[in-house]
Amino acid sequence: MEMNGRYLVRTYGCQMNEHDSERIAGLLEKEGMEETDSVEAADVIVLNTCCIRENADNKLYGQLGNLKKLKEARPDLQIAVGGCLAQKDRSIIQQRAPHVDVVFGTHNVGRASELLKVSQKSGPITEILEESEAFPSALPVKRDAQHAAWVTIQIGCDNSCAFCIVPAVRGREISRPFGELIDEVTQLANSGVTEITLLGQNVNSYGRDLTLQVRKEGLPDNPEDLVGPAWLAESPKVRPLFSELLRSVSSVSGIRRVRYTSPHPKDLRPETITAMAEVDEVCEHLHLPLQSGSDRILSAMHRGYTADRYLQRANEAKKLIPDLALSTDIIVGFPGETEKDFEATLEVAAEIQFDNSYTFVYSPRPGTEAAELKDHYVASDVSAHRMQRLRNVIERSSLRNNESRVGHEEEVVVEGRSKRDNEMLTGRTRHNRLVHFASKSIIRAGSYARVRITGARTFNLKGELLEVTATPKHKTRIPVESS
Ligand code: SAH
Ligand code: SF4
Ligand code: F3S
User: Fold this and answer.
1) What pTM does this model have?
2) ∠ CA 413-418-420 to the nearest 5 degrees?
3) Which of 9, 24, 84 to mutate to test the pocket of ligand 3 (most atoms within 8 A of CB)?
C-alpha cells in the first residue's frame, strides 16, 4: 500500500521525543510524504506525546478533542499517537478518542509508517511493546537543524527516582555501540553539522551495559565497535565509557561544539569533568539536575546523593572548568516537603548561583512510588508560593551571571532572525545563552561569529557583532539520510 500526501508531526516532552519525531518524519519521507505545518493540509497527523507531568496528559486529550471535527470532515485523514503517554495509556487512547487510527509506543517508533499502512486497510490499531530488544536499528532521520544535531547515545533509565515515570515508559537502559555513535557523528559532520548534543536520561552511565557484557561474556568479534579503542587498551577494564565518548566525538573532524544532557549527579565521574576541562570542543556548560536541596527529600526521592555531595561535585566542576555555566532541574512540593526542606533547596540554589533552572511543581504519576504518598501531598497553593520564591532566587542569579558577561567577547552560533525584531539576529554562546545582536547583512544560520556582549537581561544577552568567523558548509537542507 502506498502512502502519499503531507504529514505533520507534533512533539511534546523532551529532546528524546524530539529526536524520535525526527525519526518518524524520516520514515514518512521515505514513503514519499512531504512535511506540512498546517493541520488542515495534513493527510497524516502524528502526536508524539509525553507523560512526565499531569498537564502533559491533559494537553494530549485536549488536542485529540480538537482533531475530532477534522477527522469527521475528512475521514481519510490518519491520526497517530506515539511516545510516552501512548506507552502509558495504551488502549485507553482509542477508548477515549476512537477517531485515532494508530497508537504506538516508545519501543516501536520504527513501526510508525508500517502501522499507518496497516490501519488504512484494517482500521484502528494499537501496538505497544514491553521492552526494546536492543538499541533500535538505524532509521532514516530527518534532522531539523542543519548545523546542530542530537545524537541519542542511550535509551531508557535504570534509576528509580520516586517521582518519575520515565523508567516505566522508556524501559531499561540500553546503550548504543560506541563505533556506531562515532560513525553517526562522522556522517553528521560530513553533512555540515558542527554542534552535537549527546542525549540520554542518564548519560554518564553510558556504556555500563556494554562494558558489563564484555566483562561477563568476553570480547565480541569487533570489540572496538562495541566499546571503543581506549577502553579496550586499558587494563584492568573498569573505566566508564562516557568520558571516552566525549573525547572521541570531539575529535571527529568538523565538530566544533559538543554538549550532553542529562548527567545524574550521583554518577558524575571525575573523568567526565576532566574530559570537559581538557577537550576544547566540549562546551563549558553542565546541566546537573538537583531536584531538591533537602537530604530528607533527596533520600525519599531515591536520588542517591546528599545536598553536600551535590555541592561538592558542582564546586569541583567549577574549579576545574573555569567559566562553567551550571543549570539544573528542581521539583517543588514533593510529597512531605516541609517549609524547612524547601528552604534547604533555596539555600543550595543561592549558593550555586545557577545560570538557569527548569522548575516544576511535583505532579503525581500513576505507578510511581511517590504517587502513593497521598497523605503527604503538598497543598497546591503552598507549592505555587514556593515556586514563586524559587523562581525569584533563580532569576536573580541568572541575571547576575548574565550581567557578568557584559564587556566579554563570546563566540556564538547564529540561529536566525530574532522573532521580535527583524533587524536582529540570535545566536547561542558556548554557555548556551541566547544573544541578540544587530546585523544589516545576512548571516546564515549555523555561522560562527564573535560578538561583544553589551547588555544583559534575565533570559538573554545583547551584543554587537565583531566578525563572522565561519560559515556553514551545507548549502541545502540535509536530505533524509540513514543514521
Ligand atoms: N533523566 C533526567 C530527567 C528527565 S525528566 C534526569 O534524571 O535528570 C526531566 C525533569 O522533569 C526531571 O529532572 C524532574 O525535575 C522533572 N520531573 C520528572 N518527574 C516529575 C514529576 N512527577 N513531577 C514534577 N516534575 C517531574
Ligand atoms: Fe527519571 Fe530519575 Fe531516570 Fe531521570 S534518572 S529519568 S529523573 S528515574
Ligand atoms: Fe516526557 Fe517521555 Fe521525555 S515522559 S520528558 S517525552 S522521556
Assistant:
1) 0.93
2) 160
3) 84
